[in-house]
Design brief:
Blueprint: E1 12-14, E2 17-19, E3 23-25, H1 42-52, E4 57-63, H2 89-104, E5 108-113, E6 128-131, E7 142-145, H3 153-157, H4 164-167, H5 170-189, E8 194-197, H6 205-210, H7 225-243, E9 248-254, H8 264-274, E10 280-284, H9 304-313, E11 318-321, H10 328-336, E12 342-345, H11 347-351, H12 355-360, H13 401-404, E13 413-417, H14 421-432, E14 436-440, H15 460-475, E15 479-481, H16 488-494, E16 498-501, E17 505-507, E18 520-522, H17 523-528, E19 536-540, H18 544-555, E20 559-563, H19 578-587, E21 592-595, E22 599-603, E23 607-611, E24 617-621, E25 624-627, E26 631-633, H20 635-639, E27 647-650, H21 660-671
Parallel strand pairs: 3-4, 3-12, 4-5, 5-8, 8-9, 9-10, 10-11, 11-12, 13-14, 13-16, 14-15, 16-27, 18-25, 19-20, 19-25, 20-21
Antiparallel strand pairs: 1-2, 6-7, 17-26, 22-23, 23-24
Helix pairs in contact: 1-2, 5-7, 7-8, 14-15, 14-21
């Protein structure tokens, strides 16, 4: 029987290895997936095991060399990834466990080598080894340096970043190449089949040498393309010499860099040189911040055409498409049409623990859409880093699921009151566990507060997720009663075993004089239909919703002023990658003005008055006032349903206003107890 995704699931032979399909996982892991352990903890191993069930090659993160034992500011991104000590014998045992667990599923085990801060551009450990006993003439406890001493780290930190390449002597560069090779050799010894060496975003040393923007050297390592290629080629040549021919090397590569850096032609020329040593090149974008494309990127796979051009011009090198490669039909066409040899995804495997099985079974419609919210990189400004996914509530709990989920205690009839995202997802989990859920929705359609998403172009990921949930509810045969406002008496008559209140929340109207008069709308109203707003709009509340409403209205021809009482717009937005893309979006709109430290005092005289940071009162004229000041949970309405069934639960926004991620976790944890 032919496979639906025949090209995607076809095997591929390279250097004697057989990749079981065309899926490889891009180097990633949710932040804070483990603690300070210098070895892969159970949570990390379980996370990569879940990927290995479907992917042909699984790239692990964990060789950072620069975070262990160093106190960094808590808000930094890279320090929340694991950092394994590959030189420690006691850590090596767990690394072997990791590689063997990946091999269990017939997958290739890879480790990503990514260098973080400037003080750790070299991979070798600057530490001493204490030799115990008399070995080869060395007496017990005699301390010997493990490698060549480098310049003091503090001195390196004082050198401006753009001058760093000039700083390294030829002897140092030679040692760094040996260090890369040594690391790869140790990983091979520990059972890994491949290393993934980052060479993109002008971020680490090989990438810095390639770009004229970061390489100002005047010796044989700078200037011409031939000279700029010299060091990165040395790195890969040295790795290949160390690991031999029975080992794979992968390279994430910025296919087309920013203006002033290397040209597209130079990119192709380098790839044609490095293919002597490298087997797979992932074609990435020009900026690490943009690498996790958000919903503000309206193209689904913005690098796919570039990837196809490079594949044509670099024969003999396997080319992997990356960034936005999530939809299985899109992935299949990329392979079938010859735009890529492989598909490298990160978030597809985080949002879908069964991604590989869904591809094998041809079930593209069951793939949970990724929101591109980047919560797998962290949450808001004031949140601690945590391993989460907005649409996969098991992320961060993968190693605990077996004892967190209670076995179903027989089949039960469950009333789910509310057809928003929490209610729909909970009903789906209940159906999976053998129960019979019935959804009661007061409105004419499912979707809840996501109902407006389809009208806003940059909310396309939320719209797709809403449509996915609605489609799944229908396909799984879950009874849904629309235009039905459930009452305690109605549900008591039906004799449900369980009641789950998922009534949601309604927009909150702040106690500001004058807001109960005139042309005052809520954000959800104008997101659903921007035409009801006048030309000049003042938005009260500059959180995520207020800013997104402002961007949408500005893009549709309105002149918008967003007033936020805090000192930062969209202060709760995901701070890693996502916030920067959101800021770029509002900064690009001439009709968008954001005012922070603005406390609205009254609505009057055809506009609003507010006090600024200096305490003085200011006025913003507006035809329409839009309120985006939070939600009021329908908790009292939910509590009215207590006592009419043996079990009663409250989930989602009617407990307290929540993000999609929190609502999905609430739906999952509740269903898992029934």
């Amino acid at each position: 029987m032919p496979l639906k995704y025949e090209s995607l699931m076809s095997p591929l032979k390279v250097r004697g290895f057989i990749l079981k399909n065309r899926f490889i996982t891009a180097s990633s892991s949710p932040h804070f997936i483990q603690g300070p352990e210098t070895y892969p903890a159970e949570s990390t191993i379980k996370h990569f095991i879940n990927k290995a069930r479907g992917a042909a090659a699984v790239t692990c993160t964990g060789v950072m060399n620069g975070t262990n034992g160093v106190q960094f500011p808590m808000g930094l991104d890279f320090v929340h990834f694991p950092d394994f000590d590959i030189y420690d014998n006691t850590s090596q045992n767990y690394l072997i466990h990791l590689s063997e667990a990946i091999h269990f599923y017939g997958s290739i085990a890879s480790m990503s080598l990514f260098i973080g801060p400037p003080s750790s551009y070299t991979l070798m450990k600057k530490k001493k080894v204490v030799v115990q006993g008399n070995i080869n003439g060395v007496e017990k406890n005699d301390e010997r340096p493990f490698d060549i001493p480098l310049v003091d780290e503090f001195e390196i930190e004082k050198i401006p970043a753009h001058e760093l390449p000039e700083f390294y002597s030829e002897e140092m560069l030679d040692m760094i190449c040996d260090s890369y090779a040594e690391t790869a050799g140790i990983l091979k010894w520990l059972g890994f089949d491949m290393v993934t060496v980052h060479c993109c975003y002008r971020g680490n040393l090989p990438a810095k040498f390639m770009s004229p923007l970061t390489n100002r050297r005047t010796d044989k390592y700078g200037g011409s393309l031939e000279n700029r290629m010299r060091f990165p080629l040395m790195v890969f040549e040295r790795i290949r010499e160390k690991v031999g021919e029975d080992f794979l090397i992968e390279m994430p590569w910025t296919g087309e860099d920013v203006e002033g850096s290397y040209t597209f032609e130079e990119s192709v020329a380098f790839l044609n040189e490095v293919k002597k040593y490298v087997d797979i090149a992932q074609i990435r974008c020009d900026d690490g911040g943009k690498s996790s494309f958000t919903n503000y990127t309206l193209e689904e796979a913005p690098l796919l055409e570039l990837t196809g051009r490079i594949k044509e011009l670099v024969p003999g090198l396997l080319i992997a498409a990356v960034n936005g490669m999530h939809d299985l039909d899109l992935c299949e066409s990329a392979i079938a049409e010859g735009k890529a040899d492989l598909v490298a995804s990160a978030r597809a495997w985080i949002s879908n623990p069964e991604y590989g099985r869904l591809a094998l079974e041809g079930r593209g419609g069951d793939v949970v859409p990724c929101l591109r919210c980047n919560k797998c990189h962290g949450r808001g400004e004031d949140d601690v880093f945590a391993s989460v996914c907005s649409v996969n509530p098991r992320i961060g709990l993968e190693h605990m699921v077996d004892f967190l989920e209670a076995p179903p205690s027989g089949s039960k009839r469950v009333a789910v009151i509310g057809g928003g995202p929490a209610g729909m997802r909970c009903a789906l989990f209940l159906k999976e566990r053998g129960h019979t859920p019935v959804i009661y929705e007061a409105g004419e359609a499912l979707g809840g507060l996501l109902g407006h998403a389809g009208a806003v172009p940059f909310k396309w990921t939320l719209s797709r997720f809403k449509d996915y949930l609605i489609r799944q509810v229908g396909e799984k045969g879950i009874e849904t009663r629309l235009n039905t406002r459930a009452t305690p008496g109605m549900l008591e008559e039906e004799g449900f075993d369980v009641i789950i209140a998922a009534l949601g929340a309604v927009p909150a109207l702040p106690q500001i004089p004058g807001l109960d008069e005139g042309n005052v709308l809520f954000a959800a109203d104008v997101l659903a239909d921007e035409s009801i707003a006048g030309r000049n709009v003042a938005i009260i509340g500059g959180g995520d919703v207020g800013v997104e409403t402002g961007i949408h209205l500005a893009r549709t021809g309105h002149k918008v002023t967003v007033l936020e009482m805090r000192d930062k717009l969209a202060a709760d937005a995901t701070k890693i990658h996502y916030y920067g893309e959101m800021m770029r979006a509002w900064m690009a709109e001439d009709n968008f003005t954001g005012i922070v430290n603005a406390r609205v005092t009254r609505a009057q005289d055809g506009g609003v008055y507010y006090t600024g940071a200096d305490g003085g009162e200011q006025f913003v004229p507006a035809d329409t006032l839009v309120v985006a000041a939070g939600l009021r949970p329908l908790s009292d309405e939910a509590l009215a349903f207590y006592g009419i069934a043996k079990e009663f639960y409250i989930i989602g926004d009617c407990m307290k206003p929540q993000t999609i991620q929190q609502a999905m976790r609430s739906a999952y944890s509740t269903a898992s107890r029934i």
